[in-house]
Write a structure and sequence with these properties.
- This protein folds into 3 domains: 36 residues, no CATH class; 148 residues, no CATH class; 104 residues, no CATH class.
- The strands form 5 sheets. The chain has an 8-stranded mixed sheet with strand order 11-12-9-8-13-14-16-15, with no helix packed on it.
- The protein is built from 6 helices and 17 strands.
- The protein is an alpha+beta fold.
- The chain binds zinc ion (2 copies).
- One zinc ion binds next to β11.
- The site of one zinc ion has 7 residues, from β15 and β16.
Length: 343
């Protein structure tokens, strides 16, 4: 996105040219549109850019008290002073159960465990997956079950705290890590989302571990919020988890629990509330952290949009600018954001 400044200058130059002499309007129009397309907006009609859809707080599942939303003043990353929704979420999605994560025995079926994400694929963490881990990862250190086939699983909040730690000790090698909802009943998470999203001329990399190597990552690490108040979080550090010979499965909804963040998603599997669209467009699943709409990866016919920008966003006449999340196996929802975010 280094070319944005140049592109902008070019657009202004072209616009000036159009005012001065309109004999070449059509060709200038084309050039202008190409530049805008390069910036990730859609299909060459600048009119699309004027549609900005406000966050609809009524889409969130607030009736059982697991999510509360208030309007607060906020300042965005581009200096905009505006109002944001402050979303306070308990670790208790109203629309689905949490878990299970770790199966108990290698004879257990897929209904007794969650999922794991590897190489872009989603795997059921059933007993057979655990039994097969040494082969799957080509490493005989994996032996996460005893002679009876019982799977070593964290059993207490202390275990959860210790085994889900980046510096996990050897005593937790070959443990399936699961932190239970009962450990985080008092935890709330707060997210600030601009009510009126403000598109920027260049994208922002995610902060935390979300940015590409070697590039500044100054933005938020969280990608967005589901209608049930659960965060679509930064990628799970699967290399660190596996490097410690632990497995921290996600449930079938793509979520798991840690003691600091509570319940959070690493994959959008279609379990949390989806808002079907009238035009076969992919269903809406929540809002990105910059206030733009967040939609499922695939439309009603199972296709991903072909015109997504680097962040996985595009523009249409119904929804304005919005994002489509990545495939569930990718351990990634979005690559970056194109809107200003609340500081
Ligand atoms: Zn996680
Ligand atoms: Zn779309």
């Amino acid at each position: 996105m280094k070319n944005n400044f140049k592109s902008l200058s070019l657009i202004f130059a072209l616009l000036t040219l159009m005012f001065v002499s309109c004999s070449s309007c059509s060709s200038d129009d084309e050039n202008t549109s190409d530049d805008i397309t390069d910036d990730g907006t859609d299909d060459g009609t600048t009119d699309d850019d004027t549609l900005v859809v406000d966050v609809d707080s009524e889409l969130f599942l607030t009736s059982d008290g697991s999510v509360t939303i208030t309007t607060v003043p906020c300042t965005l990353s581009d200096g905009t002073t505006t109002d944001c929704y402050q979303i306070v979420s308990k670790s208790a999605p109203a629309d689905h159960e949490m878990g299970p994560w770790c199966p108990e025995n290698i004879a257990d079926g897929a209904d007794k465990g969650g999922i794991w994400l590897e190489g872009g694929e989603v795997y059921d963490v059933d007993g057979a997956f655990v039994e097969n881990m040494a082969t799957f990862y080509g490493d005989n250190t994996w032996q996460m079950y005893d002679e009876n086939g019982d799977i070593y699983t964290t059993e207490t909040e202390d275990d959860c705290a210790n085994a889900a730690n980046p510096n996990v000790g050897e005593e937790y090698e070959n443990f399936c890590v699961e932190c239970l909802p009962s450990y985080v009943t008092d935890l709330t998470a707060t997210y600030l989302i601009p009510i009126t999203p403000v598109k920027q001329t260049s994208s922002t990399n995610f902060g935390g571990m979300g940015g590409p190597p070697g590039q500044a990552a100054t933005g938020p690490s969280q990608r967005g919020v589901a209608f049930n108040g659960t965060v679509f979080d930064a990628p799970a550090p699967t290399d660190a988890i596996l490097g410690a010979y632990t497995l921290a499965p996600f449930d079938d909804a793509g979520g798991h629990i840690n003691l600091n963040a509570g319940y959070h998603y690493h994959a959008a599997t279609g379990v949390s509330t989806q808002l079907a669209q009238d035009d076969d467009h992919a269903a809406m699943i929540g809002y990105a952290i910059d206030g733009f709409g967040l939609y499922a990866q695939l439309d009603a016919s199972g296709s991903e949009p072909t015109d997504l920008d680097d962040c996985r966003g595009h523009t249409d006449e119904v929804r304005g600018y919005h994002y489509h999340v990545d495939a569930p196996g990718s351990n990634n929802f979005l690559n970056c954001i194109n809107g200003a975010y609340a500081n």
